[in-house]
From TrEMBL:
InterPro entries (alphabetical): Ubiquitin-like_dom (IPR000626), Ubiquitin-like_domsf (IPR029071)
Protein name: Ubiquitin-like domain-containing protein
Highest taxon listed in the record's lineage: Eukaryota
Residues in Ubiquitin-like domain copies: 3-67
Length: 136
């Protein structure tokens, strides 16, 4: 029986795909790749479990139709609460990578950069795009 499956990426964009319970994770990835090729290789997560067995069916992972609008929700690229690597561009043009979690504060990140690179904490400004990251 076909049902809608929501795929949510890290930017909180949602892709709705119609699937069958007997579809494999590989089939699902191919459908995602057909729609958003750039993100198809990201890990798929359902209820905190990474769907890493490409031959397993949705039913084997207990991904079945429910009473919620939009059906079950899978996270593409991990859930928003998972840790990730952040690449920081330095004034010299170099780059460093820092591993952060949603609980990592701007102050903690500045402290790590100070320790690793030697840029004084008070002379540092961090940006995400054009928005300066500040402590609340």
């Amino acid at each position: 029986m076909p049902c809608d499956l929501c795929i949510k990426n890290r930017q909180q964009n949602i892709l709705v795909i119609t699937v069958e319970e007997t579809d494999s994770i590989r089939d699902l990835r191919q459908e995602i790749k057909a729609r958003v090729a750039a993100e198809a290789d990201e890990p798929l997560v359902f209820n905190g479990v990474e769907l890493d067995d490409e031959d397993a069916t949705l039913l084997e992972y207990n991904i079945v139709p429910d009473d919620c609008p939009g059906g079950p929700v899978l996270h593409l690229g991990g859930a928003p609460w998972r840790s990730f690597d952040l690449e920081c561009q330095l004034p010299s043009g170099g780059h460093i990578k820092e591993h952060v979690t949603p609980e990592t504060t701007v102050a903690q990140l500045k402290g790590r950069i100070t320790s690793e690179v030697g840029i004084p904490y008070l002379c540092m400004k961090l940006f995400a795009g054009r928005v300066e990251l500040r402590e609340p």
